[in-house]
Amino acid sequence: MRWLVDGMNVIGSRPDGWWRDRAGAARRLTARLQELAADSGDEIAVAFEGGKVPDLPPGRHGGVEVLYARRHGPDAADDRIVEAVGADTDPASLTVVTSDRDLVRRVQELGASVVGPGELLRRMRPAN
To answer: What ranges do the domains of the chain cover?
Structure first.
């Protein structure tokens, strides 16, 4: 499978105090996605909004491609995800992970499929 994950949407789906440490939450999600990539062989990318995490620059990290929004403001990561889907040579092979209704519509119009955060979280190892 090929996944494109709306990082903050997945992080925000669980009220575990992530808002006290957004950078830590991004690191933890990326680590769990790395485990999923290693366990499954799936191709995974994750897009984050807000400031870049200093020790998690854009690029590949342990089997996970980390993307950041190109601008600040509302829906910035959504726009980055739409950009990535639109540039993909086979968008029908992508599964976008989000519960954002507008993003769902936008990526489906480009040919990607969509699942909610719960589907991805069920496939991952339990959080420590």
So the answer is: 2-123
Max Cα–Cα distance, the chain, nearest Å: 38
pTM: 0.95
Query: Are the CB atoms for 76 and 49 separated by under 8 Å?
Result: yes
Cα 100 from chain centre: 12
Residue 91 contacts residue 111 (beta carbons within 8 Å): yes
pLDDT at 50: 80
| Distance in angstroms (rounded) separating the CA atoms of residues 84 and 126 | 28
Q: Which residue is it, tokens 């191709």?
A: 43
CATH topology of domain 2-123: Rossmann fold (3.40.50)
- Asked if 71 and 51 count as a contact pair (C-beta separation under 8 A), the reply is no
Locate 45 and state its tokens. 């990318």
pLDDT of residue 74: 87
